[in-house]
């Protein structure tokens, strides 16, 4: 009975949200842009420290309350461009985030508090203006979805709807109340709207006539909106799937490897909505690589997450089993690993992380000097100085499923740079392991046990197969994949 009611609610919501004008193409190709600021960070240490700090803050935010965590980390800012309205179309730039389930962006008038260095109104495109009559009613299922825990009656009361109207469910003239989202080091207040949204950079073009999104007039620390690709009912894939299942039931992205080098992110990373031709399946791949799949796990506390089970990891030929809670998600939302495009570095629970580091250090630390001061400056550990070519063991992740192992490229887990390049001392080569300690199991109660960050996803096509409830990985030359798909 409960599942029947859920399905009824889902389809009622979907058909009340949107009407689409789309091509009958099975695939839409969008460019993801990744930019690295040359001025925001004065050294490699500063960039890495900021990235590790915010990766950890986002991960731990998942374990506090029901609010979502939005991507604020340098190195995780993969953005896509959309336009709002049509007379004239107004551009918006959004983070692409699989770790949240709502599309929101700043709307005029907009005030961004504590956004120095992130937002300059004189050089940034003005926030779009949304008509007042585009607000969503407080009795809409979309309103309840945005507020998550509130009933329709509560929302109508919050909107100032008279009691007699609440009793008769006649609150059509009252807008959905503002909702509050919090994230690692900031927050926002937004209101739900329905309006025309289009993807001008897609091929073919996509127009969503009545798309539901959040409009923020005030934000703390974050001037850029978010395109939520999570499993929630208001996410971009969910709304798209209501009228175009072939586009909304499957999406993938392929992140061009950058190693924090701004010169290497000039090429777009392809975001693919739908399933591209089987004949193109091996275009832009690496040695004919096929997808390795693992099943999605349901998380009752964080239903928008793409959680998967992790069996363990290998360092060289040494297999390190993962703790049991990483293999599944329990009824309280504990456990599993989240595949997240909005977190930079992979976070592992302390006991598992320490076992991986111990084996890595046993192989690397016995012949290379430990760079403890670099660890303090960057938040990464272990780090090593080296003079000649350094031998690094392979690292692989083993997911639940038949033949579901993913071997990471060396550049995805070991970052090498010149220390002292700022002129403060002798330049020395240094390398750091880019996996992070997420804390002990008690600290992770009520949320995921681990997160697979986007840095470790570079150079893979990561596919989210919503119809078959699975996530897949395949090695790709992502820039070549973009070129080849753009030719068709």
From TrEMBL:
Domain Peptidase A1: 78-474
Tree of life domain: Eukaryota
GO biological process, one term: proteolysis
Keywords: Aspartyl protease, Glycoprotein, Hydrolase, Protease, Signal
CDD domains reported in the protein's UniProt record: pepsin_A_like_plant
Pfam family, one: TAXi_N
Gene Ontology CC entries for this record: extracellular region
GO MF terms held by the record: aspartic-type endopeptidase activity
Signal peptide start and end residues: 1-16
Family designation: Belongs to the peptidase A1 family.
PANTHER family in alphabetical order: OS07G0603500 PROTEIN-RELATED (PTHR47967), PEPTIDASE A1 DOMAIN-CONTAINING PROTEIN (PTHR47967:SF26)
Protein name as it appears in the record: Aspartic peptidase
Native species: Trema orientale
